Amino acid sequence: MIWNDLNAGGVTDLGAACKELDKKLSRNEYLNSQTGAYAPVILLFSDGGPTDNWEKELKQLKLNNWFKHAIKIAIAIGDDADKTVLAEFTGTIESVITVNDKHTLKALIRKVSVRASEFQSHSKQSGDTTSSAEDDSAKIAQDAVNEIKQDASQNSPVSGGDSGAIDVSLDQDWGNW
98 has which bridge partners? Predict the structure, then answer.
């Protein structure tokens, strides 16, 4: 995986993002991509709350069959992220993970990507259709959190007790991440 630094800033147009995602998860767009044979993995990052009319667009997105079957994980960056809205997007609060530093964020993206890829490969081979996308998303999120906490406990102290929060005791400047 190649990491490119980015700068966060501006508004949080979740409605516009949902509308664009709905377009991308269409027969003409998604099925023509290399990954069109698998249900998508969708990661939503937020450090605040929506600044537009997101409810209508999310409701429309939830009708999309690719979205219904997608692995959806939301990453709340810092304590100002609206976790209730993120849970509305993923379908369950168990798929919302809070991070408070850029190194943990990078590790989390890596772990979630690997876990989701392993999951997609396993479920495709086994034909498992008994679990819901929300259950699968929550399991992948929890496995990634547990792995990061385990890695961190071997290298530095970890604090934070709720199941989806990772709070590595580092004072980080988010400026360029």
Answer: 76, 165
Walk along the chain (177 residues) and give the pLDDT tens digit of each residue: 566 666 667 788 999 999 999 998 887 766 665 655 677 889 999 999 999 999 999 999 999 988 998 999 999 999 999 999 999 999 999 999 999 988 888 888 889 888 888 876 665 444 555 568 888 889 999 988 999 888 888 875 443 334 444 443 223 344 444
Q: Determine which helix (DSSP H) or strand (DSSP E) holds 98, and give its type and residue range.
A: strand 96-99
Q: In 33-96, which residue ranges form alpha helices assigned H by DSSP?
A: 54-61, 65-69, 83-90
Contact between 22 and 89 under an 8 Å Cβ cutoff? The reply is no
CB neighbour list of residue 153: distance below 8 Å, 6 or more residues apart: none
Distance CA 149, CA 55 (A): 34
Distance of alpha carbon 135 from alpha carbon 94, whole angstroms: 9
pTM score, whole prediction:
0.76
Query: Cα–Cα distance between 137 and 172 in angstroms, integer?
Result: 28
Comparing C-alpha atoms, which of 47, 152, 44 is closest to residue 160? 152
β-strand pairing of 158-159 with 165-168: antiparallel
Cβ-based neighbours of 169, under 8 Å, separated by 6 or more? 156, 157, 158, 159
Distance CA 80, CA 47 (A): 6
